[in-house]
Write a structure and sequence with these properties.
single chain; 162 residues; mainly alpha; 8 helices
């Protein structure tokens, strides 16, 4: 490491807010933390999937609002806006995509792939929101919209092939 290089930014694992923002540690992997963090959201999906559509959406809304605070707090603590290891936003985005998902692993995998595709490519307006919004709202909103895009495409596919 060069003499004047900054040390890598690392979460404080003793801080529960950091642990949540980093998806219980899943966002700390060195490669593809967003994808690994999204995989780590699947147990939460299976936990809330049996809820009615309304309660499922209410849980996701609460997680989104809480995520604004969590992601904003950890971004501030680390001094990095939207640190790559913060994956709480991916958790919420995936849950949005999988809302009303048809039964079966194939549909879950398709939903997963759609969410990751939209989250990585960031088509407009996701890219614009990602640039323009700051703080926890900025961290959360691009994944919210990626989740909505994934949801819309997944539902269209389900209607076409069901």
């Amino acid at each position: 490491m060069p003499i004047f290089a900054k040390p890598p930014v690392r979460p404080d694992w003793s801080n529960p807010v950091h642990l949540l923002a980093f998806g219980l540690g899943s966002g700390s992997v060195p490669y593809a933390p967003g994808t690994v963090g999204t995989v780590a959201a699947l147990p939460l999906y299976f936990l809330i999937r049996p809820l009615s559509a309304e309660y499922y959406l209410l849980v996701v809304l609460v997680l989104f609002v809480f995520g604004i605070w969590v992601c904003g707090r950890v971004s501030k603590d680390l001094g990095v806006h939207d640190h790559g290891g913060i994956v709480w936003d991916e958790w919420v985005g995936l849950l949005i995509t999988l809302w009303l998902c048809p039964a079966g692993w194939v549909w879950i995998l398709v939903g997963f792939a759609l969410f990751r595709l939209f989250d990585i490519l960031k088509p407009w307006p996701i890219s614009w929101l990602d640039r323009e919004l700051t703080g926890g709202l900025g961290v959360m909103t691009d994944d919210l919209i990626a989740g909505v895009f994934g949801f819309l495409v997944l539902q269209a596919m389900a209607r076409l092939w069901s």
